[in-house]
Amino acid sequence: MNGFGERQRGLSFIGVLVLLVIGFMVVVMGMRLVPVYLESLEVGNIIESVADDPEMRGASRSEINRALNRRLSVNALRGVDRDAITLRETGAGIEIVVDYEVRVAMVGNLDAVASFKKTAVVPR
Questions:
Q1: Which residues contact 85 (CB under 8 A, 6 or more apart)?
Q2: Angle at Cα 50 formed by Cα 53 and Cα 114, nearest 5°?
Q3: What is residue 91's DSSP assignment?
Q4: Each residue's pLDDT tens digit, 65-116
Q5: Residues 26, 37: Cα–Cα separation, whole Å
Q6: What CA–CA distances, in Å, run from 116 to 22, 25, 44, 48, 64?
Q7: Buried residues in 9-29 as b, exposed as e (16+ CB within 10 A)
């Protein structure tokens, strides 16, 4: 056949270009957001380790706060502001709440904002 009347199959150059741009955007988003989520997991592990530490049972708010700040500093977690940490009395003990947001520059003037809230209770 000479090709007249047959439809072409496959992607055009423009189609391939669009797929490459979308793929590039997904890779950039992943490279910028994965570290933020890994840091969030580390924050959760830190507050859980403080809550599970036998030495922290019956500790005062200031002792718990010092332990949290020390562990956050040792792990070099810069995304968590110290003002994001709240300690409050509950019936079971002292509840640690870390509630924070991280803003990540994506492309140009577009930013992504990730909000995290981690909680744990230090028993009495």
A1: 65, 68, 96, 97, 98
A2: 155
A3: S
A4: 899 888 888 888 777 887 889 999 888 889 999 999 999 998 889 899 999 9
A5: 16
A6: 27, 24, 10, 15, 20
A7: eeeeeeeeeeeeeeeeeeeee
Taking Cα atoms as reference points, which of 17, 123, 32 lies closest to residue 79?
32
DSSP secondary-structure letter at 89? E
Number of helices and strands in the chain (H, E) = 2, 3
Residue type, 2: N
CA dist list (Å): 65 to 24, 82, 103: 42, 9, 25
What is the C-alpha to C-alpha distance for residues 58 and 96, in angstroms, rounded to an integer? 14
Answering whether pTM is above 0.85, one says: no
pLDDT in tens, 21-54: 999 989 988 999 999 999 999 999 999 999 999 9
Query: How far apart are the C-alpha atoms of 36 and 28, rounded to whole Å?
Result: 13
